[in-house]
Each structure stands twice: as structure tokens, then as C-alpha cells.
Prior knowledge:
The protein has helices spanning about 25-30, 105-115, 120, 165-175, and strands at about 5, 10-15, 15-20, 40-45, 50, 55-60, 65-70, 70-75, 90-100, 100-105, 125-130, 130-135, 145-150, 155-160, 185, 195, 200-205, 210-220. By secondary structure, the protein is mainly β. Bound molecules: magnesium ion (MG).
Amino acid sequence: MYSISVDPGNQTIPVNTVYCLGRNYAGHAREMGVEPPAEPVVFMKPATAIRNGDSPILLPSFSNDIHYEIELVVSVNDVPGNVLTEDASKYIMAYGVGLDLTARDIQSTAKKKGLPWTLAKGFDGSAPVSRFIKAGNNLITMNTMLRLTINNHIKQQDIIGNMIFPIPAIISHLSKYFTLRRGDLIFTGTPEGVGPLQHGDEVTVELVDIVSFRTKVQKL
Ligand code: MG
């Protein structure tokens, strides 16, 4: 069973589906050579992609270019269909931080051929996540910051408020197409500054002042 831990209370909650937003920060869209999207770009990872962030990141042998992408991760409650953006916040169950690990070489080939990103994005271990913190009491604000540090160098740092599609708009959009169930995760997109991970890297992944994890990269 693939699950997350939610504090306070150290509750274990199973995850069925992992939804992900692509190109949700203008700076990242541009560094990938595309314009910021007019509609949310959605893809998925299987639940088997989830790992506890504290365990080592294992670089798979099928790629020579695994990139880090720090992202705010939202876990939802059961969400009814066709939720309005203005009603969507109440379905947020908890917040965490994670990495949308991406086999950039495989993704580039898929993009060129017009093929899906599934192998590049959904492989085992491609979604390391922190513990989650129950939503409420204005835990998250527009100024809440994501920060990814490798070997003590800051590589990615931006605020939640710079997302193109804010969390309620994402939930509303997804609810038009999918039945979101309690525990499902939404990776909300990465700011600019993505890059490759190397064997031996020490990675710190922070939702600043809220939750974080620190881990090491190993070649499989
Ligand atoms: Mg991403």
C-alpha cells in the first residue's frame, strides 16, 4: 500500500492517484522552451511512484538525466464533481512538499515524437514526498516559499503565489474530469531552476518553515 503520513496525529492515509501539473510557473515553462499554458497541463504518476522523502533517491539505470523538480504537494479529501474554484479550498486535506523526478532524456524523446510522458514521469520512486501537515489556520499563504538545495547551493526558490493556476483552480479543473478521492495527491508544478541529480548529491527539499526533507542521491 502506498500512503502518506499526516500530522498532527501521525495518520497513515493511502494514496490512490497522483495528479501533476506541468508548466505551472512561467519561468519553468520558458526554461523548457515553451510558452506558459492558457489551460492547466495535467499528467499522472501511479501511486507506486511515491517514496518517503527521507529514504535515498535511487537513480534508475534507464536514464542518464534524472532531473529534480521541487513542488508543493496537496492532498485532498473526497471531492465532488465540477467543484467551483471559489468552493475548492475546503477540499484540501493537507500540504506537503515533494520532488517530481523526471527522466529528462526520455521525456525529450517522447516530446519530439508526440508520445506520452508516462515513462519519464511515472517510474518507481519518481515521487519522493515529505510528511504532510493538515490544512487550516492559514498554514499556507501566497508568500509560502519552496526551496531546493543541493550540496548547500540553492537551485530552486520561489513562492506559491507565482503559480499560474492557483490550487483552488487546479482542484476545480481536475474535478471536471476525475473523481478525486481522499488521500489523492496533486503535484502543483515546479519553479524555474530544474537540473540533473548526480550520485552523492545531498538534497534538501523545503516548504519553508512548514515541512522539509533531506536525502542523498545514489546510483542504482
Ligand atoms: Mg513537475
